[in-house]
Specification:
By secondary structure, this protein is of the alpha+beta class. It is built from two helices and two strands. It has a domain of 45 residues. The chain binds zinc ion (ZN).
Length: 65
């Protein structure tokens, strides 16, 4: 039962992601993980932040530049 529920959850999430279409350019948004590094001014150590972004034709040039 638990396995079936998990699978259904994943399928539902996948369907949601596939369904996120950009209203501007009409392409399916691709979720990617964008990793950026920044140096902390306080401790002068590098920290990495990850964030999920949805890429479509509107912003792919900025993301992949
Ligand atoms: Zn777009």
């Amino acid at each position: 039962m638990a396995k079936i529920q998990t699978f259904a959850d994943k399928a539902a999430k996948a369907a949601l992601q596939k369904g996120s279409k950009c209203p501007v350019c009409g392409t399916i948004r691709q979720p990617i993980l964008l990793v950026s590094s920044e140096k902390s001014s306080v401790s002068s150590t590098w920290k990495f932040s990850e964030r999920r972004v949805q890429v479509c034709k509107c912003n792919e040039k900025e993301i992949y530049a």
